[in-house]
Amino acid sequence: MGKANLKPAIYDELTGLPKFNLIKNFLADYIVRRSCTQFAGLEKFALVYLDINDFTYLNETYGYKICDNIIQRIADYLSAKVCNPNYFTRVTGDKFAILCTEFESKEHIYEMIEDVVNNGCNITISDYVFYITMSAGIAFFPEHGRDIDVLMKKAETASYLAKKTGKDINIYSDELQKDIIEQVQMINKLQNSIDKGEFQLYYQPEYNLTTNEIIGVEALVRWPNPEGGFTPPDLFIPIAEKSRQIYSLERWIVNEALRQKTLWEAKGLDDIELSINLSSKTLESESNFQKIEDIISSYQVDCSKIIFEITETILLTQVDMAIERLNRLRAYGIKIALDDFGTGYSSFTHIMKLPIDIIKIDKSFIQSVPHGNEETVITQNILSLAHKLNYRVVAEGIETQEQLEYLKTSSCERGQGYLLCRPLPSDKLNNLLHQL
Ligand code: C2E
Ligand code: CA
Ligand code: CA
Are 334 and 370 in a shared domain? Predict the structure, then answer.
């Protein structure tokens, strides 16, 4: 059942596609027949719900005429992709559905839908070029329901959750749905807190291990929860990265950290270095990276005392882009630290090609010295190579006197950790800095 321009009652006027009701009746009939007789080859089907991303925005920006045109063009694009014996229909507005009756496995359907939605499509209308992406949810009969409305609802929920969590396609499953619903709730709470400005920055001092002086601080984001504690960043940062909320959160973080640096400078604490963690997601996105640059430009602070900490994720996959962006930060005088060093795949051979000034040895190594043989050897090697290659080294997560003594005798000049000082809110940190 492809496109046709036949009876308006059966076919959608805008796209010429069969109306969803037609498919619905067909399916209802099919389900009834299936329960009466055991049809060979008619045991299962998949219902795919397709939703165009950001269509409301397109409608508001370009108006209904252009958007109707977009829907027609997407219907053409999808019709060409969805072949017999699958049925393709428009549900309402920017929502489409595909009924797949012949497939070997769930993976098979997933791959087919991946091919339909994965690369999006470019549509040109009156000199405008639109890049259209879609989200898809898939529900299977009879596994996910024996009623067409239930199946449709589950496919729709799966697609909604795919969109919310930054995935393109989502197959309905009860357990996954529970996890995703939790994620979605967290995303909604995150948004609420971003809107209300409920985040805080804590600062963990970094010490010169020889003189025991504070030489800098690392800004660490804190998200207060209703129980009176904080939800750990390791829990919500990955979700904010998936949902792309990290961009606005990170703008707030950079802004707040630089505002704090301005206050320190005004109080004569010019020498305190400020380290800010920067997500790979922000580095990857030109427009969001530019917004961070705009924030940096808007502050009259001494950038030679600012450090951006990055992780190796982007350095392994998009080296050229990372080099270009990091050099742009360096042009302000900002230094770059490679965080969590030793946990991933980065080697000195690789990082020597990159604009990196500082290496932070991951706390998992520091916490195993001097007794863990492998970790101690690795720490020793990182320290000696880093010194030979003129990198500054910071040891993270120093928790015991023994670890501290070991690092000092191994000529590790800088470090941070609970033994020295826990992350503090700005007022407590300020008291500490004024005692210097
Ligand atoms: P990270 O950048 O490696 O930050 C260091 C983490 O180690 C912090 O955890 C800090 O509180 C903790 N820590 C410091 N000293 C010790 C110690 O002696 N022992 C142990 N066990 N832990 C120590 P936190 O604040 O929970 O942050 C966890 C991670 O979340 C950070 O790891 C970073 O990847 C991310 N994160 C935190 N704040 C931000 C932020 O503002 N922006 C971004 N993009 N990521 C952030
Ligand atoms: Ca860090
Ligand atoms: Ca780290």
Answer: yes
- How many CB atoms neighbour CB 312 within 10 A? 21
Tell me which ligand sits closest to the C-alpha of residue 206: 1
What mean pLDDT comes out for the span 359-377?
Answer: 94
Tokens of 48: 């795919």
Do 350 and 374 belong to one domain?
Answer: yes
Radius of gyration of the chain (CA): 28
Listed residues 123, 139, 172: the one ending a domain: 172
Q: Beta strand 45-52 with 134-141: parallel, antiparallel or unpaired?
A: antiparallel
On whether both 270 and 401 belong to a single domain, the answer is yes
404, containing H or E segment:
helix 401-409
Same domain? For 197 and 161 the reply is no
CA distance 376 to 406: 10
Please report whether residue 126 resides in a domain. yes
Nearby residues for ligand 3 (ion, Cβ within 5 Å)? 339-340, 396
Residue 318's pLDDT is what?
A: 86
Lowest-pLDDT choice from 78-87, 217-226, 360-369, 396-405: 78-87
The CATH number for 222's domain is 3.20.20.450
* Per-residue pLDDT tens over the stretch 50-101: 999 989 888 888 898 999 999 999 999 988 888 777 888 999 899 999 998 8
| 49 strand-pairing partners | 97, 137
227 plus 343 within the same structural domain? yes
Q: Is residue 180 assigned to a domain?
A: no
* Mean pLDDT across 419-433: 96
Residue having the nearest C-alpha atom to atom 37 of ligand 1:
220
Most confident range, picked from 15-24, 152-161, 314-323, 343-352: 152-161
Domain that includes residue 92, residue range: 3-172
User: How high is the pLDDT of residue 436?
Assistant: 67
pLDDT digits (tens, 9 = 90+) for 160-186: 888 888 888 999 998 878 888 888 999
Confirm whether pTM is higher than 0.85: no
* 179 domain-assigned: no
The pLDDT assigned to 39 comes to 44
Instruction: Tell me which of 207, 220, 369, 402 to substitute to probe ligand 1's pocket, judged by most ligand atoms within 8 Å of the beta carbon.
Output: 220
What would the 3-class secondary structure string for 228-278 be?
A: CCEECHHHHHHHHHHCCCHHHHHHHHHHHHHHHHHHHHHCCCCCCEEEEEC
Q: How far is the CA of 397 from the centre of ligand 2 (A)?
A: 11
